[in-house]
Write a structure and sequence with these properties.
The complex is a heterodimer of chains A (about 260) and B (about 300). Chain A contains 10 helices and no strands. In chain A, helix 1 crosses helix 5, helix 5 packs across helix 10 and helix 6 packs parallel to helix 10. Chain B is α/β, with parallel strands linked by helices and about 300 residues long. Classes of the chains: A mainly alpha (about 260), B alpha/beta (about 300).
């Protein structure tokens, strides 16, 4: 067997383990992933959406109803929040809480394979969450079936973010401090300033760079393009994809290196 | 000795300026039960991690099954079963699932594991806990499960780091019995411990380590013979008087160790010495004659107790 095939197999063995653990939570995960889009539909559809429409008409945001404008970004943010759940907690657990990574590393698995295994399992959850979210939006008529490329491509945003996050979390020793700092200083600004709830261009220019480096903004822009024909040039579209794919590749390599380093400590 | 399974020369591990393992040499033969005895911080666990190919040596030579763990880590690890000091079971999974997922790490087939898991559950005496979450197990059961897990790939070498630390006496004896069975089956065991009784029970041969160095090497019986006397007389005169009496007693026997609470007198005939002491009108509050143990060897070699 080739070296690459061997590497992938090892990663898959660890992913199997992770998926088995995730399956213990299937009821809760299912409920969360199903309830989340419903909450948004109610809050935005009945609440904020009405407010926005009253003020700026039915095609006021980017030429479409507010809910339609928002929907692709919500699918993208679901990709990212699921990726956070399934990379941050397993990484803290593996290195700190239960030290399961050390067990796997005493078996033949390498740090890189363990990192890849966590990533594969996380992606299975991301794909699941995103698909459910999109299906709910479609069934309520917010998005068309023809927008199927939206969930497909926004997954890339979750992948890129999760890949980098695993590497960052593998350097964490004080998990309490990290988790509260991360949710307040990274997650909240990420969701607020990535052009999720309003176009990025509505923000003053000096705040827009937050969006430019945010995988959520790139994923949301791609998502909007494929959801309702939001117009962006091919060049910009390619740049969005290039950013996310580069971040994904960097993240996977970085995590692999960091996992190996921490296991050797 | 036939070609050793493990062979180390000048094995060294430094963390910055601190030398955790200071150039040690040893070899382990197939089927041998080899112990690393020493107090906490002696370098035993570090040595184990280097052998287990999960930590890099700073210098020296090391081969395991003719492979260098530095270059062929995963290949070396495929032949080892590792029981770490701290259990790293997945407490969210059941007992059987822990064995199963661990077996998968070695690329073992689902079909093979189906039978193997049942066999290991029987070995670990955990059949009735098969579908229980690991969280609910006692410390001794978790330890047995960790050992069973390490055996899933039928390793050539089983490495146990402080296998019974933190267990109650009954749980320790059950564990020793399991390990003894493995030894009888010809599994090569590498055990670190700071319990001398454990080393005496389980090890054919051992190295006594202190501050990263090997202080002595041999079978438990050889070490006792070489570094201690046949018997030890322990006497207590009360903490104030121990010091006072010690010089008098020194005249009666070659070696006296003063511990905070008692005096250890090294002689071949403990009862005879006790009579002499009594004849001198030195009446100890309590006295005990026992045979020498590895604890005495360690005390002799380092001037310190194993458990401080």
């Amino acid at each position: 067997m080739s070296q690459l095939a061997l590497q992938v197999r090892g990663a898959w063995y660890f992913a199997e383990h992770r998926i088995r653990v995730m399956s213990k939570w299937k009821l809760i995960i299912g409920m969360i992933d199903f309830a989340n889009p419903l909450f948004y539909l109610v809050a935005v559809g009945i609440g904020i959406g009405v407010l926005v429409t009253e003020n700026s008409g039915n095609s006021g945001t980017d030429g479409v109803p507010y809910l339609t404008f928002l929907a692709p970004a919500l699918v993208a943010s679901t990709a990212i929040s699921s990726a956070i759940d399934e990379t941050m907690f397993p990484t803290l657990e593996g290195f700190k809480w239960r030290k399961t990574f050390y067990g796997a590393n005493s078996a033949p698995l390498s740090g890189g394979q363990i990192a890849a295994g966590v990533f594969i399992a996380a992606m299975s959850r991301v794909i699941f969450s995103v698909t459910i979210y999109w299906l709910v939006l479609v069934s309520f008529g917010v998005l068309e079936l023809s927008s199927w490329r939206t969930p497909l491509f926004v997954t890339l945003g979750g992948a890129a973010f999760g890949a980098v996050l695993m590497g960052v979390v593998s350097k964490v020793y004080n998990d309490d401090l990290f988790m509260s700092a991360f949710s307040r200083m990274v997650v909240t600004p990420l969701f607020l300033f990535s052009g999720t709830f309003f176009p990025l261009t509505n923000m003053p220019i000096y705040l827009q760079p937050i969006g430019w480096i945010s995988p959520l903004w790139h994923a949301a822009e791609i998502g909007r393009h494929f959801a309702y024909g939001y117009e962006i040039s091919n060049l910009i579209l390619i740049l969005h994809f290039t950013f996310l794919i580069s971040l994904l590749i960097f993240g996977l390599r970085y995590s692999s290196k960091q996992f190996t380093k921490r296991l050797l400590k | 000795m036939s070609k050793p399974l493990i062979s180390a020369r000048g094995l060294t591990k430094k963390y910055g300026d601190f030398q955790a393992v200071a150039g040690i040499d040893f070899a382990v033969a197939k089927g041998e039960s080899f112990g690393l005895l020493g107090p906490n911080g002696a370098g035993k666990s570090t040595t184990m991690r280097i052998i287990a190919a999960t930590s890099r040596r700073t210098s020296g030579e090391l081969t395991i099954l003719d492979l260098d763990p530095e270059e062929r880590g995963p290949q070396v690890r495929a032949h080892l079963g590792v029981v770490p000091q701290q259990d790293n079971l997945d407490t969210e999974l059941t007992v059987a699932e822990n064995l199963y997922v661990y077996g998968r790490y070695f690329g073992l087939s689902k079909k093979y594991l189906k039978n193997k898991v049942e066999e290991l559950l029987a070995f670990a005496q955990l059949e009735d806990k098969r579908d229980v979450k690991v969280d609910a197990l006692s410390g001794g059961m978790k330890r047995r499960l960790t050992i069973a897990r390490a055996l899933v790939s039928e390793p050539d070498i089983l490495m146990l780091d402080e296998p019974t630390t933190g267990l109650d006496p009954q749980a320790r004896h059950i564990l020793w019995d399991r390990l003894f069975r493995l030894k009888e089956d010809g599994v090569t065991l590498i055990i670190t411990t700071h319990f001398m009784d454990e080393a005496e029970q389980l090890c054919d041969r051992l190295i006594v380590m202190d501050r990263g160095k090997i202080m002595a090497e041999g079978s438990p019986a050889d070490l006792i013979k070489k570094y201690s006397t046949k018997e030890v007389l322990e006497v207590r005169f009360g903490s104030d008087r121990n010091k006072e009496v010690a010089p008098v007693i020194r005249e009666l026997c070659d070696r006296v160790e003063e511990l905070p609470d008692r005096l250890l007198l090294y002689v071949d005939d403990g009862e005879a010495l006790l009579e002499e002491i009594t004849a001198k009108k030195l009446h100890p509050n309590t006295s005990l004659v026992r045979r020498s143990s590895l604890e005495d060897v360690f005390l002799r070699l380092t001037g310190r107790s194993l458990i401080e």
